[in-house]
Design goal:
4-stranded parallel sheet; alpha/beta; 145 residues; 6 helices; 4 strands
Length: 145
C-alpha cells in the first residue's frame, strides 16, 4: 500500500495512452507511475516486451526492486540485463522474458545485432531522461523504436 496523490493518478492516466515525459522532483512518485504503466502494459500486450532503461547498473537494480515491490510484477517475466551479460545469454533472455530492466547501451547493442527486434517492444521507460541528448544511447534507442 502506497499513498497515491491526485497528480500521480492524472499522470498515470496520460502515460497509459500517450507518450509522456514525467518531470518530478525526487521522491514524488515517478517510479510508482512507471510501475503502474508497466503492470498494465504487461497485461494488455502479453506477447510484447517492456523495457525500463536506467543509465547505470545501480539504478537498474534499484528500479527493478522498486517496480516489483510496488506492483508485484510477475518475477518470472522480469530480468535485469547489464554489460556483464554475454550476448548469447541475452539472446535467451529476450526469448524467455517480457519485462527488462537494463542500461540503454545494452538495448542499443541488441537492437543493432537483431537480438531484440524493435517491433517486439510495446513500452519503453527511460529513467534520467534528461541524459537523452546528442548521440547518447537513449537517443539512438528512441530512434530505433
Amino acid at each position: 500500500n502506497f499513498p497515491v496523490r491526485q497528480y500521480q493518478l492524472d499522470i498515470t492516466r496520460t502515460a497509459l495512452f500517450n507518450n509522456t515525459l514525467v518531470a518530478l522532483p525526487t521522491g514524488l512518485g515517478k517510479t510508482l507511475i512507471a510501475a503502474v504503466v508497466i503492470y498494465n502494459y504487461q497485461r494488455w500486450y502479453p506477447s510484447k516486451k517492456i523495457l525500463f532503461m536506467a543509465p547505470t547498473k545501480p539504478l537498474v537494480a534499484q528500479q527493478i526492486d522498486a517496480c516489483c515491490n510496488i506492483m508485484r510484477l510477475p518475477a518470472h517475466h522480469c530480468c535485469t540485463v547489464t554489460g556483464s551479460s554475454m550476448p548469447k545469454h541475452r539472446m535467451a533472455l529476450w526469448k524467455e522474458k517480457r519485462i527488462f530492466f537494463l542500461t540503454p547501451q545494452i538495448v542499443q547493442n541488441d537492437l543493432h545485432r537483431g537480438i531484440c527486434p524493435a517491433e517486439d517492444i510495446c513500452l519503453l521507460v527511460v529513467d534520467e531522461a534528461h541524459r537523452a541528448q546528442g548521440r547518447h544511447s537513449y537517443v539512438e534507442v528512441s530512434r530505433s523504436h
